[in-house]
Design goal:
The protein is α+β, with helices and mostly antiparallel strands and 579 residues long.
Amino acid sequence: MPEKSVRDMSDAERRFYSLPATVFNATVLGSLLLGFLTFLVGLGLYTYVLVNQYISQVSATTRSMAMVIEKSGADIMTSAATTMSIYRSLDEKDLAGTGTEDYHRLFSDVSKIRNNDMLAGILKEFDVNDDIDDLYIGMYDTDRKRIVYIADAELDPEIRMYTGDWEDISEGEIERFMNWDGEGRLYYIENNAKYGWICTAGVPIKDASGEIVAFVYGDITLENVADGMKTFALLYFVVLIIATLIFGYLLNKYIKKRLVQPINSIADAALDYAADKKKGIVLSNHFSRLNIHTGDEIENLSLIMADMESDIADYVENLTSVTAEKERIGTELSIATNIQTSMLPNKFPAFPDRNDFDVYAFMRPAKEVGGDFYDFFLTDNDHLAMVMADVSGKGVPAAMFMMTARTMLKDAVLSGMDPAAVLFRVNAQLCENNREGMFVTVWLGILQISTGRLVYADAGHEKPMICRGGEWKFVDKRNGVALAAFDPELLELDEEPAFKNSELVLGHGDVIFQYTDGVTEAMKSDREQFGTERLLESLKVIGSAEPAEVIDCVKGRVDRFVDGAAQFDDITMLAVKMK
């Protein structure tokens, strides 16, 4: 596979890696591989048939020749016995002269045997009439692994074997011929150093006792088989290459028409679609106008692309309207954020003309608008009201409920009621039309600045913390129920009032700190929470500092703890220091 993209290739590389070229190469390679396997099978069958034909021919000739010799009256038994007797009487020195005139005179008695000359005539007759390389009669010397010739049809004196001549023979041929069980054809094929590949077939001549005295042999060389195999291979591969090229060419044209051209049409349509999109041209028929009818997956692809183009056009149209709507909602939420921020005290120092106390607050909503809120205001010149609240839920509903609760709480405090009475009153007001079942936890305190006396009440909110003498600790409080969580009539049935006032006296340098659960429940990505212990440790580090420093320290510790994890809840804090 190429390492670079098709868009980075040259024209030659694109043609080389194109689908038609790939199909053509695969076709040629597959055809050649299949053709080679077929060639091996065909060559084997061809060789088998041709060799069997030769074997059948030489076997039939030797059988016929043996029958003719038997009926002719030639005394082959005596000729064979006499020849082998003379051969065995000679020592190795005499036997080494095989093929010489002196050696041949040693076997002159064989020619005197009755009708012995008929054997050569019969052999010559068959040698002329049959396409056999050599016909002869002989017998094996099993001890010396030789064949001893008795008669030979060969006329050429240079290669003719006369009576008594001998040649070394393979042990395999001797065992094959001497141990033949009479079943099937008797033959032996070997690659002889003198004659090359040769097939020898024979018929045994037996005496009255069944002993083999000689064999009638026929030799046929297999050079014709090798020549035939070469011719077969040459013609086969010529035909295979021509057929493969023709088939590959036709398949290449078919692939181009059936696959490549439709695919290129789809690709061109995709490029036109992308180009029109960049130009801002609104068209949705790039793929539907292709009119591809191949009846296969390519046609299905073109239909899918056409449907996709239509769906994208519809989606873009819907997305445009949705985006405009989201922008409108985003703008409105931004305005709501500004409105909510402006409703809470956000200018510090809040009371620049007062040097007997200092106050600071911070809120960071989890969404555009939040459900947490804080508030502080002077009810008169000597009393400071402080509120910390957390509305159930988040977002716009919580923000609207927050603004309602804040307004009610401030109105009740300014009417001169103590914190517990304020919570009773606001609880009743919020329960009147609370169809959504929302509620709000509240901590409300009123500080007499001249004496440091802090009267506070709780509606299910977090425990405040106080720093006195540089040491931070939690302030005990009487737990109340969240506002709007229970019907006022049910709360009146309880023996213990739902909301009670508590008192605390703040001295010079004391700091009161209140917060929402968004601080302690801030989570890292593994969902581990910041917790009250880390909050207390953070405050101990800062000590009796200014309210702004206290809140900045806690905020910084929380941000480092969550390490960029998403904020799930509003984070709100309020701190007041007596001076």
